[in-house]
């Protein structure tokens, strides 16, 4: 039977889209918005929908210039259709993470064959980092998706017009031609799409959308000495496309806000990277330690990546070029983020697609029996032991004396039903190993372990989240009138305006909104000092509701003309009320 390679591509992509998308949708609303980051990226599109201002991002009515708006626009569109709950706020992230998995499949298949491509997508969708970021609204998801698309287009443009791929998995032992990734797009069009995706990456998170692709592509060209590529990359039309996408918003913002460009480019890019001002510091080895954790359970395969990186269907020169490109895609961003003074776990996500591709290629060798199943069985057993030990440790860590034990005691809030996915997956993996099943069975069992870990972590966040104001906000909604005063005293909860669907008054705090508050005097109507709050509280004829943490409550001064009493508490957050006169 003759197989249509293009039909196989389309079928795989369609099936992967629905399978991975549906998988990610499970438990999408299992926990409230995480603060500060996730709630911030829900509040900004909420403001766009309420105010109709889609140009200037705002948080609680305060202009917020730190990031470009593409993700906010996508979020606002989704929320206008699906509503304001957590499922609606995260569906965009699901789609973008699914897109990243599809691109990972496409590159893996283009370089190493269909099985490697499918397994690459499996690795990315079931590893802890990939599954975890699919369930939170974070800017690192769209920027990773578009960087992956950008680099995939460049890599596809370097491939021959057709590749000869093995179709053993399709039931044929002969070799038949299969188009490279991109099909009939042509090399010139692939380069143009490279610029488009780089512009979209920049519109997602700023200059990183240029820096990472530029580093990887530039280093690869230099190391392989393929300088002629520079004359083929459609530079002029590509730059025009890039500017058409990325320039208009920046120009309009500069016209409406004179201080925008200096704050956005200097403060938010260079100052953030070079200084500790944003207080997101971590050791230089932070991402080196985070990466293997994010690869769980597939981290067990990484030792094999250094052995025999030789695809079956390419010449030695192509092997060096393709593998080198993937390695640069991993190493250079890792170095870039490690040398930054601002570090968050999700920053490192752009290196996970190439890691998944290399792991998928190695798993394909196990899948086809080209590597001994014994070594995979040992690796899987190590994963099983370590994950089991971690689960057991969660029950004993609270016994540690002192403050550490008190903090770890929260882990016991994860109930047995939440642990069932990972317990069942580990039992299945143990059964597979005991029965000496083949490599295919072990890979499938490891995938279920990854899914089980992800689901347990996702559902386990809810009882561990002590910062959310959702319970108090839901109680307040039933008694809140439009003219009542809602106050965050001494701090600011990013999710409070989201769950109340209204702006709030913030007392004695500016934090990351300091630039907007200092440059836009109209914000002083609701971003106020304590003295002004107490004066308003004493004179208003409407109800006043105050959110304050326990430490702030202890230091709260007493005012006879503004008596406040506790009406509700959630963890360390208190809700106070002054009743109407």
What does this structure look like?
The chain is an alpha/beta fold and 581 residues long. 59% of the residues lie in helices and 7% in strands. The chain has 23 helices and ten strands. The protein has a six-stranded mixed sheet. Strand 3 and strand 4 (175-179) form a beta hairpin. Helix 4 packs antiparallel against helix 5 (114-126), helix 4 (86-112) packs parallel to helix 7 (140-157) and helix 13 packs across helix 14 (352-367). The protein is globular, with a radius of gyration of 26 Å. The relative contact order is 0.11.
Write the layout of secondary structure elements.
Elements: H1 5-25, H2 37-51, E1 58-59, E2 62-63, H3 70-82, H4 86-112, H5 114-126, H6 128-133, H7 140-157, E3 162-166, E4 175-179, H8 187-205, H9 208-224, H10 235-256, H11 260-274, H12 286-294, H13 316-338, H14 352-367, H15 373-396, H16 403-408, H17 416-434, H18 439-464, H19 470-477, E5 485-489, H20 496-500, E6 505-507, H21 514-519, E7 527-528, H22 530-539, E8 544-549, H23 550-554, E9 565-570, E10 573-578
Parallel strand pairs: 5-6, 5-8, 6-7
Antiparallel strand pairs: 1-2, 3-4, 8-10, 9-10
